[in-house]
Amino acid sequence: MKKEIFQIKKNPTTENLLQAIEMITLSCYGVCRLSDQYLSNSNKKPKQLKNSIFISKNFRNEYKIRLYVVLISTVKITEIINEMQKRLIYEIENRFNIKVLSVDIYVNTIAQEKN
Length: 115
What we know:
Layout: H1 14-26, E1 31-34, E2 53-57, E3 62-72, H2 77-96, E4 99-111
Parallel strand pairs: 3-4
Antiparallel strand pairs: 1-3, 2-3
Helix pairs in contact: 1-2
C-alpha cells in the first residue's frame, strides 16, 4: 500500500510570512540589509519588519510582496534582484503552500560593504 503525503493547506500568519521573507532575503548574495521604505531612514536598520516588507493578499488568496533593501556595491543589481525574486517566490510558495503573484524589490541605497 502506497502512503501519500498531503500538504495541509493553511493560511500563514503575516508574522510567519514576514520572518520567512526576512530570512530568505538576508541569505541572498549581495544583500546588505533590509531598508526602511522611506529614503530618509534608509541608512538605518528598520525598527520593525513592517517598515520594509509589505504583503497584500487578494480574494483568491494570492499574495503580492514588496520589500526594500540595501545592496552591496560590488555586485550587479539586476542579477541580484532577479535571483531574489525567483528564490522568494519558490521558497514561500513551497513552504506555505500559497500562490505568490509578484515580488517587487526596491533598492534604496548601495552600501560599500556589508554591515
